[in-house]
Specification:
- By secondary structure, the chain is an alpha+beta fold.
- 23% of the residues lie in helices and 34% in strands.
- The chain has one domain.
- The strands form 2 sheets. A 5-stranded mixed beta barrel has the order 1-2-3-5-4.
Length: 128
């Protein structure tokens, strides 16, 4: 009986291990990288410029779980973010893991994102 239980644990672990080994998330091609300091909600400092989070914006932690911006107020974090078209407010924010932050280059401006090429399979940007 104990051998069967042990075998079941080994099989379950081997099936789940590859899924947990994937630490990199896939980001939309319009995602930019920046340093963000969360202030009094909805105010943030993005690359040294004061801006705001858009209504309905989402902040995801390094574990990809939703984070409430007031809970991380005052922290300077390396993030990926998208901008709400038309209002220039920050729409979605992902706090980066060290592995995600190591992927370089990554565009920091809309102009770079327009002129560089993104390969979603390799999760890499290529400069022209």
């Amino acid at each position: 009986m104990y051998r069967c239980a042990l075998a079941a644990i080994v099989v379950a672990t081997s099936i789940l291990a590859p899924a947990s080994a994937q630490t990199l998330r896939t980001f939309p091609p319009n995602t930019l990288r920046g340093a963000m300091i969360f202030g009094d909600y909805p105010v943030v400092s993005l690359n040294g410029l004061v801006t705001r989070l858009s209504p309905g914006s989402r902040v995801r932690g390094a574990d990809n779980m939703t984070v409430m911006p007031p809970a991380i107020a005052g922290n300077k974090l390396l993030v990926h973010y998208t901008v709400d078209v038309g209002s220039n407010l920050v729409k979605d924010v992902w706090i980066l893991t060290p592995d995600e932050a190591a992927i370089k280059p990554w565009p920091t401006t809309l102009e770079e994102a327009r002129t560089w090429s993104y390969n979603p399979t390799t999760r890499r940007w290529t400069k022209p």
